[in-house]
Every structure is written in structure tokens, then in C-alpha cells.
């Protein structure tokens, strides 16, 4: 068992004495980087990832793939395509996947869900372990499905079947075929099975049975990236059956992929414009994307700002007032902590719905947001599937983060408007945004 080194020091969240005016370069998307790594590792030829996110979650993915025999070379590229493409680039060189190996998943949902299917293709045992919280996060959908598709997996050694730690006894290949799963607790179950499926002997047909599936944009991201790597995928959107995805077996191409900025990590910076009545530009905001963070253009506009997408990027401008809203966040659950932070500072109440599955994210996000905002004087109650937030004047105090990067950034947003907020363990932002304190200070001109 490994534990993320936690930093219990208190970080005084900067208070904004005026409107922010800044351009913030946000690092690459976690979700795109980790999908790109998996697909490149499974490809029939080498590929490139340019401007990858370098954070705890993506470096765990790199280490895991290397442990199974994949070559990943880190270089600084200066592409002939122009200065905009220069910067860090990872060259991924696929090879026969090998065990024995040990994978540390940390608390990365993408690593703990996307890699067991990859491990079934390895020759030899691959052991998976991670942070204590990773033992509590749902994995049964992946484990049960892989078994049904022909894999041999040892789980439950710690009396916790259907969860980590576990060992996948890779046989060098997997039959694949049809499988039913209940992915209502995490869309990553579906993404995990689809990503490796071109390499299964019969591909896969995944049928989701159960209550509503969260985070659909992330499944669309999986499908788009598979298709861009040459895979044939049938989806419900393309006239297929509802809740059924099919991937045909076939070789994957090595791609040259430039990773988009992480739009969910752009959230606290956009929120800063909203909260201070200022203006923030995020360069390289994609015109078309499957990232859920793109929904911030609509959601934060409804909360009181306006935005414009130009050649310079996305510029978001706050109006000086912040309104509450009633919104279903089931498609964009990972945006909830940042929206809750803004909602706590609004001029009217908010209801955030459709996010019961956040109780099984990095921490129980509904409980954590309720407790921490209320300890600063707020009035938040949990509902069956979300939060009611009634804004009240807030005061300073310690904002605990529970090893959750998005709790830390949510606390920082509140700190802009409330003097004396101290974030416990801001270093937990390293999961997806290691430079957060520096970027935040830079935005504020400090
Ligand atoms: O596939 C992905 O990259 C993700 C899917 C979502 O997971 P859930 O469906 O478990 O919420 C999201 O919350 C997570 O941050 C990233
Ligand atoms: C839920 C999240 O992460 P994970 O990929 O670990 O599920 C998140 O980043 O908000």
C-alpha cells in the first residue's frame, strides 16, 4: 500500500482586493493524457503525445505502462509545425506487455480502471495497489466484466472483493465479446473496457444496465480518441442501441497527439473572474472538445459572467454579481466542487443535482463540501443526489481538502472573496495541477 505524501501545512488562500485581469496557461488534460498513453501503449507502432499533463495521475500511468514493458521517452520537442507545438513531448514505444509487474494506482480513477483491461493482455501477473482511498472506490464493474470476458483476476485478499488490491493474471490475450455492466457509479468502467477492446480477440460489446450513467462526455472522449487511433466503434449516438457500445478488433495506429488544456482545471481561474468581477483568458481553449469543462462557458455565464472564444483563447468576464442556479451536473460531475464554491458566494440559492456518485470520488465530495463551506459560516445541505447551497456571509478559517485536488481549488476560490481562508494540504493539487499555487499567485499578480 502506498500513501500520497500529504502536506498538512496551511496555505493562506490569497484574498483578491480587486478585479483579476490575467491570462493563464493551463496545463494539459488529465483525461486526454491518460487515454492517449493507454492507446499509444496498445498501438501497433510508436506515437507521440505533445504537451501532456505532467502530474501525479499521469506520471502514475507512465510508471505503470513502463513497468509492463512500454517504452516512454520524455523529450522537449520543437516541432516543425511551429512554435505553438514546441514544449514537452512523450514518445511512446509499444512492446509486448510483460509481467510480473506492480502498478501503483495512487488515487487515480483513470489508472485503477483503465489498466486492469490492459493487464489482461500482458504475459504474466500484474499486481495493482494504491492509496487507502483507492480501496474504497468502485472497481467491481471492471473486475466482473473482465472475468466474464475471460480474464483471471485475484481480488479480495484483504477481505474486500471487487476492489483493490488485486492481481490480474495476464495470459497475453483476452477473448472479449459481449458483457453487461452497471456503470452508474463510474463512467470509467465503460471507458476502461472500450479503450483496450481493439486488442481483445473478439473486440467487445458493452451494455450498461442500471440507473443513469454519469459523465457521458468522458465516454464520448474515449470513443473519439479510439476512432482517431483507427478503431471502429459503434455507439448509441450513431443510431445504435441505447447504452450499448461495440468495438471491433483491429490494430491501433500510433498517433501524433497534441493534448488540449485541462478545461476542468481552468475552472478555478474562470471562477476567479466571476467572483472578483474581473477577466481571465485561457489560451488554446479548443473550439470543439469532448471535455466536460467546456460546459463552464454555459454554467458560469448563467451564474453572472460572459465569455468570448477568440484566437487568443477563451476570455471570461465577471459582471460583479454572482447568481445561484438549479443545475443537473450528472454529465460534468468533476465540476461540482468549483461550482459549489461560486454558488456559496452568490446572491441567490443554488441546487446542484445528479451527482450522487461524487460520494465515491477522491473523497465523499458532497459531505466534504457541505462540512467545509458550513464551517466558514455557510448554509449547505446534502440531498440524495447533490447539494442545496444558500449563500450566507462567510468568514475565514481552515478549509480541509481530504486529499482531493478539487476541494483545494474550490477553497482557493472562496478565499478570493473571504479574508482568512487557509487551505489544508494545497499540495494535493499535484494530482492533476502541480503548479496550482504558482499559477494562482501569477493570476493575482503576486
Ligand atoms: O474518464 C475520465 O477521464 C473521467 C471520468 C469521470 O469519472 P466518473 O464517471 O467516475 O465521475 C470524471 O469524474 C473523472 O474526473 C475523469
Ligand atoms: C473524479 C476525478 O478523478 P479520477 O480520475 O480519479 O476519478 C476528478 O479529477 O475530479
TrEMBL record:
Top-level taxon of origin: Bacteria
Single annotated GO MF: 3-phosphoshikimate 1-carboxyvinyltransferase activity
Residue ranges constituting the Enolpyruvate transferase domain according to the UniProt record: 17-438
Gene Ontology terms describing biological process: amino acid biosynthetic process; aromatic amino acid family biosynthetic process; chorismate biosynthetic process
Main location, first listed in the record: cytoplasm
Reactions this protein catalyses: 3-phosphoshikimate + phosphoenolpyruvate = 5-O-(1-carboxyvinyl)-3-phosphoshikimate + phosphate
This enzyme's EC code(s): 2.5.1.19
Residues reported to bind 3-phosphoshikimate: 30-31, 35, 186-188, 215, 334, 361
Keyword ATP-binding: no
Subcellular locations according to the entry: Cytoplasm
Alphabetized UniProt keyword annotations: Amino-acid biosynthesis, Aromatic amino acid biosynthesis, Cytoplasm, Transferase
List of catalytic residues: 334 (proton acceptor)
Pathway: Metabolic intermediate biosynthesis; chorismate biosynthesis; chorismate from D-erythrose 4-phosphate and phosphoenolpyruvate: step 6/7
HAMAP family, per the entry: EPSP_synth
Assembly and interaction partners: Monomer.
Family designation: Belongs to the EPSP synthase family.
Function: Catalyzes the transfer of the enolpyruvyl moiety of phosphoenolpyruvate (PEP) to the 5-hydroxyl of shikimate-3-phosphate (S3P) to produce enolpyruvyl shikimate-3-phosphate and inorganic phosphate.
Protein name: 3-phosphoshikimate 1-carboxyvinyltransferase
Organism: Streptomyces silvensis
Gene expressing this chain: aroA
Amino acid at each position: 500500500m502506498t500513501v500520497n505524501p500529504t502536506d498538512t501545512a496551511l496555505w493562506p488562500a490569497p484574498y483578491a482586493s480587486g478585479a483579476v485581469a490575467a491570462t493563464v496557461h493551463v496545463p494539459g488534460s488529465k483525461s486526454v493524457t491518460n487515454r492517449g498513453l493507454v492507446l499509444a501503449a496498445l498501438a501497433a507502432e510508436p506515437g507521440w503525445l505533445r504537451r501532456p499533463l505532467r502530474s501525479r495521475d499521469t506520471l502514475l500511468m507512465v510508471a505503470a505502462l513502463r513497468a509492463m514493458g512500454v517504452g516512454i521517452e520524455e523529450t522537449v520537442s520543437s516541432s516543425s509545425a511551429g512554435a505553438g507545438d514546441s514544449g514537452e513531448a512523450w514518445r511512446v514505444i509499444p512492446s509486448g506487455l510483460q509481467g510480473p509487474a506492480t502498478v501503483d494506482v495512487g488515487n487515480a480513477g483513470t489508472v485503477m480502471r483503465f489498466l486492469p483491461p490492459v493487464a489482461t493482455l500482458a504475459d504474466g501477473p500484474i499486481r495493482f495497489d494504491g492509496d487507502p482511498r483507492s480501496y474504497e472506490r468502485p472497481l467491481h464493474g471492471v473486475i466482473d466484466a473482465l472475468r466474464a470476458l475471460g480474464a483471471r483476476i485475484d481480488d479480495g485478499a484483504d477481505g474486500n472483493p471487487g476492489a483493490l488490491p488485486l492481481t490480474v493474471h495476464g495470459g497475453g490475450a483476452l477473448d472479449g465479446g459481449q458483457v453487461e455492466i452497471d456503470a452508474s457509479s463510474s463512467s470509467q468502467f465503460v471507458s476502461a473496457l472500450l479503450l483496450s477492446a481493439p486488442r481483445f480477440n473478439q473486440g467487445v460489446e458493452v451494455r450498461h444496465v442500471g440507473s443513469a450513467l454519469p459523465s457521458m462526455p468522458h465516454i464520448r472522449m474515449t470513443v473519439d480518441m479510439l476512432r482517431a487511433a483507427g478503431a471502429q466503434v459503434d455507439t448509441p449516438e450513431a443510431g445504435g442501441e441505447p447504452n450499448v457500445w461495440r468495438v471491433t478488433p483491429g490494430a491501433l495506429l500510433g498517433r501524433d497527439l497534441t493534448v488540449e488544456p485541462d478545461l476542468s482545471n481552468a475552472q478555478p481561474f474562470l471562477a476567479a473572474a466571476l467572483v472578483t468581477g474581473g477577466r481571465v483568458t485561457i489560451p488554446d481553449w479548443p473550439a470543439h472538445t469532448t471535455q466536460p469543462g467546456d460546459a463552464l462557458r454555459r454554467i458560469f455565464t448563467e451564474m453572472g459572467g460572459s465569455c468570448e472564444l477568440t484566437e487568443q483563447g477563451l476570455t471570461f468576464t465577471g459582471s460583479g454579481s454572482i447568481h445561484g442556479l438549479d443545475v443537473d451536473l450528472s454529465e460534468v460531475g468533476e465540476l461540482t466542487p468549483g461550482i459549489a464554491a461560486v454558488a456559496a458566494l452568490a446572491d441567490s440559492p443554488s441546487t446542484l443535482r445528479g451527482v450522487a456518485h461524487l460520494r465515491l470520488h477522491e473523497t465523499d465530495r458532497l459531505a466534504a463540501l457541505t462540512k467545509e463551506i458550513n464551517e466558514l459560516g455557510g448554509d449547505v445541505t446534502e440531498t440524495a443526489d447533490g447539494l442545496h447551497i444558500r449563500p450566507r456571509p462567510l468568514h475565514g478559517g481552515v478549509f480541509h481538502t481530504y486529499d482531493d485536488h478539487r476541494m483545494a481549488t474550490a477553497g482557493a476560490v472562496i478565499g478570493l472573496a473571504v479574508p482568512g481562508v487557509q487551505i489544508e494540504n494545497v499540495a494535493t493539487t499535484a494530482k492533476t495541477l502541480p503548479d496550482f499555487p504558482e499559477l494562482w499567485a501569477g493570476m493575482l499578480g503576486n
